[in-house]
Amino acid sequence: MRLDKFLKVSRLIKRRTVAKDVSEQGRVLLNGKEAKPSATVKVGDVLDVQFGQRTLTVQIERLAESTRKEDVAGMYTVLKEEARKREEDPFGL
């Protein structure tokens, strides 16, 4: 399954076009490497997705072409969630 489709179907990102844009910006790592939207994901892969000031690390547990909201929970396991601290502004702005 394509990376951008997985991000949308798993509801990590709401829209496939947004998932595509995020991947193209280099904010998604697949097994530690930058991934294009067309990258193929499989069960067991680890994704790092950067959302603004936080990074979410998940492991893919199940693939499905479409899912209901209730079934999304089994598609991935959250391994780590980190909030990055804002860099201090030396000028106090």
UniProtKB/TrEMBL annotation:
Function: Key component of the ribosome quality control system (RQC), a ribosome-associated complex that mediates the extraction of incompletely synthesized nascent chains from stalled ribosomes and their subsequent degradation. RqcH recruits Ala-charged tRNA, and with RqcP directs the elongation of stalled nascent chains on 50S ribosomal subunits, leading to non-templated C-terminal alanine extensions (Ala tail). The Ala tail promotes nascent chain degradation. RqcP is associated with the translocation-like movement of the peptidyl-tRNA from the A-site into the P-site.
Keyword annotations of the record: Protein biosynthesis, RNA-binding, rRNA-binding, tRNA-binding
Family listed: Belongs to the RqcP family.
InterPro entries tied to this protein: RqcP (IPR025490), S4_RNA-bd (IPR002942), S4_RNA-bd_sf (IPR036986)
Organism per entry: Cohnella endophytica
Chain ranges of the RNA-binding S4 domain: 1-61
GO biological process: rescue of stalled ribosome
GO molecular function: ribosomal large subunit binding; rRNA binding; tRNA binding
SUPFAM superfamilies, alphabetized: Alpha-L RNA-binding motif (SSF55174)
Protein name: RQC P-site tRNA stabilizing factor
Subunit structure as annotated in this protein's UniProt entry: Associates with stalled 50S ribosomal subunits. Binds to RqcH, 23S rRNA and the P-site tRNA. Does not require RqcH for association with 50S subunits.
Xref: Pfam families: S4
